[in-house]
Amino acid sequence: MPSFADLSYLAAWRGVLRRSAAGLFDAVLPPRCLQCGDLVGGHGALCGACWSKLRFLGTPCCAACGLPFEFDLGGEALCGACSARRPRFERARAALVYDDASRDLILRFKHADRLEGAATFAGWMARAGANLVAEADLVAPVPLHWLRLVRRRYNQAAVLANAIGGAQGKRVVPDLLIRRRATPTQGHLGREARRRNVAGAFQVNRRHAQALAGARILLIDDVLTTGATAEACAKTLLNSGAKAVDLLVFARVVRHQ
């Protein structure tokens, strides 16, 4: 049996080899800013100029939907929309504001196979929703319909869910929800039209029905706009036995009320 000294020696050499391989990779493909392409210090990073333009979110915010507040109104304060009607999900949090500075970053990740930033984005999301991640029993992405998944080749929400769950030691169930009908894209639709568009579009995968019972689900998506898709998913999960559903997204639209 190898001695402790032998194991330590081997571990040290493995570290040297990993660093050498990383150095060779950086020499061939030097790390570039995820946004503008300028050279940066490490892969999956932003340059200082692009970083400074992003608007990161935190507290104070609406206790339900996470809408940022200018002033701290208390831990359980709600925005006007959530005071009038609470969403079906219990809490929503986002890492960034969806605006001109973040739009291209998100669209490249979503549509252009630019997945090298997934671990970075997942880290930002995990910090923004630390309580949600800590309390989650299961992590699941908002699903794509299989036709759209074939065209796009990956579900960006599933990529983020796997990165968050892997880093935080949470069980990820990528196919917990199934999108049973192909809904039209919602970019041009208003709030009520979006709700009608996704009504009844989701179902729980029967293979995971037992794991869902009594569980707190952390639902992952890329962008929160009106919340219609997230609410449709949350309604489906709650009706199928989940105890609660939280939502964690990369970015959210901020409409001041």
Shape: globular
> Helices and strands, in N-to-C order?
HHHEHHHEHHEHEHEHE
The domain tally reads 1
Give the C-alpha Rg.
Answer: 20 Å
Give the % helix. Answer: 40-55%
Give the rounded overall mean pLDDT.
Answer: 87
Question: In terms of topology, how is this protein built?
Answer:
Blueprint: H1 4-28, H2 48-53, H3 80-84, E1 91-97, H4 100-111, H5 118-128, H6 130-135, E2 138-141, H7 146-152, H8 156-168, E3 177-179, H9 191-198, E4 202-204, H10 209-212, E5 216-224, H11 228-239, E6 244-252
Parallel strand pairs: 1-6, 2-5, 5-6
Antiparallel strand pairs: 3-4
Helix pairs in contact: 5-8, 9-11
What this model shows, in words?
With 257 residues, the chain is an alpha/beta fold. Helices cover 42% and strands 14% of the residues. Helix 11 (228-239) links the parallel strand 5 and strand 6. The longest helix is centred in the first third of the chain and has 25 residues, at 4-28. The termini are far apart.
Provide a brief overview of the structure:
This protein is of the alpha/beta class and 257 residues long. It is 42% helix and 14% strand.
Considering the chains and any ligands shown, give keywords for the structure.
two-stranded antiparallel sheet; single chain; 4-stranded parallel beta sheet; alpha/beta; Rossmann fold
